């Protein structure tokens, strides 16, 4: 009579990589980030062309910073999710998170250097990039071990604009303000999915909200920072 096999088999787990994502989730993460990267590259080209044709050096420099920040953020995320070896993945994860600080500061840059300028513009520009540097230092030190500290820092940086909302409303047309607000809301709602670790494909959903926020802010810059044709800007108010 055949002996019964009493060996306990380890429970199967759908998590297949060092980041804790299933293969399907990681593919979705890489694809969504890749879409964001492609859109960011196209967006940079469009902004630089229009800034060169219709603006001045401030427009060109500021939209270039914004565009590069978009590319760095989405590209670092794409590489992080596309690479499998644990050691490389852990390094790319750090760059992925650091790029978020650059993206937030880069998004502020066109509005601070073009629309606001002056005391308010330079003050906000200095503050937001100082916060970005602070965020990078947090990420590279033991403070990074504090759960959700970096996420809270991202959100706080993103909504720093409320400190100067008066000057922003005075110097940015309402259509631009609404686009900025829509982008901020998209990023913030996305954070909820980012933190919802028990939800399948939560990270890919987070990426979609990030892309949405990036698109809103891209059009805010295109229509309300670059002196694009008034008829085009009028479409958004």
Any overview of this molecule?
- This protein is mainly α and 237 residues long.
- The chain has a single domain, classed as Rhopdopsin 7-helix transmembrane proteins (Up-down Bundle).
- It has 9 helices and no strands.
- Helix 1 (23-54) runs antiparallel to helix 2 (57-82).
- The longest helix has 32 residues, at 23-54.
- The protein is globular.
Q: Determine the CATH topology.
A: Rhopdopsin 7-helix transmembrane proteins
- The helix/strand series, from N terminus to C terminus, equals HHHHHHHHH
**Whole-number mean pLDDT:** 85
State the helical fraction: over 70%
The beta-strand count equals 0
Overall structural class, as computed from helix and strand content, comes to mainly alpha
Number of domains: 1
CATH class: Mainly Alpha
Radius of gyration: 21 Å
Shape: globular
- Classify the beta-strand content into a percent band: under 5%
Question: What's the helix count?
Answer: 9
Q: Indicate the low-confidence ranges by residue numbers.
A: 9-13
Kindly, what is the distance between the CA atoms of the first and last residues, rounded to a whole number of angstroms?
Answer: 83 Å
- Second rung of CATH, namely the architecture: Up-down Bundle
Q: How would a textbook summarize the main sheet?
A: none
